[in-house]
Design brief:
Elements lengths: L1 H8 L17 E7 L5 E8 L4 H14 L13 E6 L3 E2 L11 E2 L13
Antiparallel strand pairs: 1-2, 1-3, 4-5
Main location: membrane
Organism: Paraburkholderia hiiakae
Keywords: Membrane, Transmembrane, Transmembrane helix
Length: 114
Amino acid sequence: MEALRELQARRQYVHVNPKKVPLEAEAIVSIRAAPDGSIVSVTLLRSSGNDDLDEAVERGIAAAAPLPAVPHALHIARIDMHFHPVRVDPLALQPGQPGIHDAGNSEGRSSDSH
């Protein structure tokens, strides 16, 4: 759990042209990481159908490297992730104002998991 909290704290937003990416798009990516957190490979399991989003996902993963080290006892070498675009209203990013919008929920995250 500590590794997941650390990764969420380091989460970065990767920008794409919002006119080119529909909110319902979804890319599924498999990330293989070494025990020290370095990324061994990134495989697009399912394209979103939008090259801009697929490329932004790969850039975002590269920007997040290295990932937090995974405790050996967990035996995790592969992480499959679902990526959905979100819309950010920069004017609303002030204390107490919602600024991130997506098609599924108000947090911009999916509960889907492999």
